[in-house]
Design a protein that fits this description.
With about 90 residues, the protein is α+β, with helices and mostly antiparallel strands. The protein is built from three helices and three strands.
Length: about 90
């Protein structure tokens, strides 16, 4: 799916809902793309292992990730209907 042909359906930090939404879209036979970005930047000059240790100790690790779900622009309305059903 090319970036200009897709629309964002959901963005958030709730991993359980992310998985629930992906399953719901698959069940509705809607093709999607999913992405995850770690939003905890860590401290300057710290290596990845040290930064992850600090994030784990002082922040909720699950809340440091931001999840994105995209669908083709022609499937957007159907995907939003599926999203609303998944939220209930």
């Amino acid at each position: 799916m090319m970036p200009w042909n897709r629309k964002e359906v959901w963005m958030g930090s709730d991993e359980q809902f992310f998985m629930k939404l992906k399953n719901a879209l698959s069940g509705s036979q809607i093709k999607y793309e999913a992405d995850m970005k770690n939003s905890w930047s860590g401290g300057r000059g710290l290596d990845a292992r040290t930064s992850n240790g600090i994030a784990t100790r002082y922040a909720e690790p699950a809340k440091t990730n931001t999840y994105y779900v995209y669908v083709h622009k022609y499937d957007y309305e159907k995907a939003m209907h599926t999203l609303r059903k998944a939220e209930k």
